């Protein structure tokens, strides 16, 4: 019954398609009694065909625009924003790009795939937004116009300098993450090498494991080797990209063991133990440093604001008038002291051993 039902459905669909084709309008030149009527009908038919071609071309253009818009939307906002600035300010952007020495190397070390000129365009865009935000913020605080303009200029300069140093910050953060994962990855590789696995397979295993940035960098090493680079060149390029003493020590030990022979698994185990010991020592020093900073933090965040308010009130009572406008006092209490607290917390966070 199932086979018969399938054949019946197929015949019904075939018949439906036949009816659709049969019902489609067909163009025919009407049989006129004179040649003029036939020529007139032929011209009308030609106009209809040209109109349909124009509509088809218009539909194709609309589809292309829709596809282009989809691809544009899929791009990150930063890329689209940088392209827009580069489109209107290509000359100044290219001049700034040529004046920045080492920007391409900073982007490479930070694994930022944006071209230098596009990144400089993004720097300008962020600086402009920071300047406008600073001006509006100062204006809303009822500061004088010249002070608002000065705050806007400081915001522009600050945003520009921040974006200039952003690749270096990303690079240092990536190096810290690599150094943090290095002892575990070295133990991983040493266990595989002691089991008889080759060094390339051990690197591949680390690349496929979840070691964060280190797995990404090992994947790049394997990619360089697949594209024709030697094992030594790939590791040397990894060392130059990281620019870390710990990474350089590991790379030199691996290359020395591969070149001159040696028990590489024992060497990697020893390096992992050395890194773990150094981390414990740094952690002890960090705890001692934080204990000293904790007192300063409590004084600046709790005692200092209270003493400041009491001093302002006492001075106002003695002078029989406010010695500081309420708006300025509110700005200091709401922004200055919290900013100092954030700076101290950031210093403590940066001092944390990696």
Report how far the terminal alpha carbons are from each other.
72 Å
Structural class: mainly alpha
- How many DSSP H or I helices? 13
Strand residues, percent: under 5%
How would you sum up this structure, described in words?
With 354 residues, this protein is mostly helical. Residues 17-27 have low confidence and may be disordered. 84% of the residues lie in helices and 0% in strands. It has helices spanning 2-23, 35-74, 77-88, 90-99, 103-109, 116-140, 145-194, 199-208, 213-226, 231-242, 245-260, 264-319, 326-350. The longest helix is centred in the C-terminal third of the chain and has 56 residues, at 264-319. The chain folds into 3 domains: 2-74, no CATH class; 89-262, no CATH class; 285-354. The N and C termini lie far apart (72 Å). The protein contains 13 helices and no strands. α4 packs across α6 and α5 (103-109) packs across α7.
């Amino acid at each position: 019954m199932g086979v018969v039902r399938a054949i019946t459905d197929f015949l019904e669909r075939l018949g439906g398609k036949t009816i659709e084709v049969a019902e489609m309008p067909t163009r025919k030149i009407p049989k006129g009694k004179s040649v003029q009527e036939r020529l007139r009908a032929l011209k009308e038919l030609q106009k209809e065909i040209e109109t349909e071609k124009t509509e088809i071309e218009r539909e194709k253009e609309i589809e292309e625009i829709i596809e282009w818009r989809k691809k544009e939307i899929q791009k990150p906002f930063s890329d689209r924003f940088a392209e827009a600035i580069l489109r209107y300010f290509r000359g100044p952007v290219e001049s700034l790009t040529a004046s920045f020495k080492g920007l391409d190397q900073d982007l490479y070390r930070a694994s930022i795939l944006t071209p230098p000129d596009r990144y400089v365009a993004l720097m300008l865009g962020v600086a402009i937004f920071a300047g406008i935000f600073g001006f509006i913020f100062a204006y809303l605080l009822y500061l004088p116009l010249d002070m608002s303009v000065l705050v806007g200029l400081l915001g522009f300069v600050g945003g520009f300098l921040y974006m200039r140093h952003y690749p270096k910050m990303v690079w240092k953060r990536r190096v810290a993450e690599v150094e943090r994962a290095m002892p575990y990855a070295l133990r991983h590789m040493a266990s595989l090498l002691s089991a008889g696995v080759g060094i390339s397979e051990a690197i591949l295993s680390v690349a496929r494991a979840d070691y964060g940035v280190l797995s990404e960098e090992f994947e790049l090493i394997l990619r360089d080797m697949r594209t024709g680079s030697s094992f030594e060149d790939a590791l040397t390029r990894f060392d130059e990209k990281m620019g870390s003493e710990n990474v350089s020590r590991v790379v030199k030990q691996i290359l020395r063991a591969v070149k001159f022979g040696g028990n590489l698994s024992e060497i990697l185990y020893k390096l992992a133990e050395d890194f773990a010991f150094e981390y414990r020592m740094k952690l002890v020093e960090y705890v001692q440093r934080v204990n000293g900073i904790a007192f300063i933090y409590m004084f600046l965040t709790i005692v200092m604001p209270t003493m400041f308010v009491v001093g302002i009130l006492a001075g106002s009572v003695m002078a029989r008038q406010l010695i500081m406008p309420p708006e300025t006092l509110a700005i200091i209490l709401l922004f200055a002291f919290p900013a100092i607290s954030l700076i101290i917390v950031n210093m403590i966070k940066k001092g944390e051993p990696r």
